[in-house]
Amino acid sequence: MTPRSLIAGIGGYLPERVLDNDALAAAYNLDTTDDWIVERTGIRRRHLAAEGETASAMGAAAARAALDRAGLTPADVDLVIVATTTPDSAFPSTAVRVQGHLGITRGFGFDIAAACTGFVYGLGLADSLIRSGQARCALVIGSEIYSRILDWTDRGTCVLFGDGAGAVVLTATDDPAETRGILSTHLHSDGRHGEILKIEGGAGSTGGTGLLRMAGKEVFRHAVSKLAAVVDEALAANGLGHGDVRWLVPHQANLRIIEAMGRKLKLPPDRVVVTVDKHANTSAASIPLALAEADAAGKLQRGDLIVMEAIGGGLTWGAALARF
Ligand code: ACO
């Protein structure tokens, strides 16, 4: 019997400092307005990490909340995956640092760099490792501090992002009658589009600023078509249709993209989880943060079909289907 991965708990962490659009413009001397940002993106505010705060510490805080919700402890965990493109360091990986923060001394951990699609990739990998018997209790974490890789003189990008972390605990079940859990994940990438959304330079690079660069219109052009296709791919793989979806929990980059996806799936707006207004784009953290918020609000009910989808730098994109 192949085990399946149940969603046992969800948690989130947001840094204390909150800046609305006006406060951001004032703090960084940006030539922008609240109206422009809200109209183009739906973003109203974002949380920004404090000096000295790290992706591993934020990820560990989200993980603790998810473990509490699951009624589990760090001693139960045998796999930690952190999706991040703002790691504390290239190594030790952020995941191994999270193990350290939580006092986990068994199993294994590693990071995934798939930009905003990182959490969906993480779910896919954790599910595969559970199905193959290599793990029984996995923490899948998205944790990002984009405020450290933004060009604060580029109003076209710096207004779009925020910092935060989210985590999901997956546990293995061997019950053949169980129909909940991760149904499937569908992962894609295409390196031909690497230039439209990237971090310029990095640890192994001989140049570059280490800052995020984005051709927003180009990314937008790819987003809705690729996301719609991968969601349909995921539903078809499970013999399901748009009418079966209870919750769309999309990557939170831009309200216009999110609303377009809701329309494609013919979902009423109240079944689309939206946090981009409060969190901005927290990259790999946005889906687990949105899940955590929906769960804390009591929206997610046992057996609900959840569709998660994301697109990000690479390009990478993907979808995951889960029954809560
Ligand atoms: N305030 C005021 N004006 C601005 C701002 C700002 N913050 N930013 C740009 N502008 C100006 C531009 O300078 C330009 O002015 P011009 O016409 O005088 O040259 C004008 O607004 C239009 O700029 P565009 O970039 O063409 O604006 P657009 O309508 O495309 O909106 C946006 C930009 C919001 C970034 C949009 O393209 C978008 O959402 N793209 C998708 C981004 C995304 O989803 N990324 C997801 C992945 S992120 C990741 O993976 C890390």
Relevant terms:
four-stranded mixed beta sheet; 13 strands; single chain; 324 residues; alpha/beta; Peroxisomal Thiolase, Chain A, domain 1; binds acetyl coenzyme *A
Summarize the structure.
The chain has 324 residues and is of the alpha/beta class. The chain has helices spanning 21-28, 34-41, 55-70, 94-102, 118-131, 155-158, 216-237, 255-264, 276-279, 286-296, and strands at residues 4-13, 17-20, 45-48, 79-83, 108-112, 137-145, 163-173, 181-189, 197-199, 212-214, 247-250, 305-312, 316-323.
What does this structure look like?
The protein has 324 residues and is an alpha/beta fold. The strands form four sheets. The protein has a five-stranded mixed sheet, sandwiched between helices. It has two domains: 170 residues, 3-Layer(aba) Sandwich (Peroxisomal Thiolase, Chain A, domain 1), CATH 3.40.47; 143 residues, 3-Layer(aba) Sandwich (Peroxisomal Thiolase, Chain A, domain 1). It is globular. The structure holds acetyl coenzyme *A.
Helix content: 25-40%
Q: What structural class do the secondary elements suggest?
A: alpha/beta
* CA-atom Rg in angstroms: 18 Å
Which CATH architecture of the largest domain would you pick?
3-Layer(aba) Sandwich
Order of helices and strands: EEHHEHEHEHEHEEEEHEHHHEE
Strand order of the largest sheet: 1-7-6-4-5
